[in-house]
User: Fold this.
Amino acid sequence: MAPISFSSSSRKHGVPEEDQEFAIGNPAVVELIESEVLLIIGHPHGQTERWIELPIRALPSGDKNVFHAMELGPRFRPFLEEATRR
Assistant:
């Protein structure tokens, strides 16, 4: 996987980088939502039922940048619901 960086905005809602990394490595949802933005939904660690949302921007270099991370909200919840119906 390409190197991943974390913008300061990815910590705005209190999700630690370790939790973001866990969700990226163990995604329930991986969906292209814009031409250069990948949505990942996953658990922040293995001992929880909570979900977090992580939009990740693909940079021209091929690297990835997490620019947002928070508890899964209503905007992206339908992606998880669709994935669990499959």
Summary: The chain is about 20% helix and 35% strand.
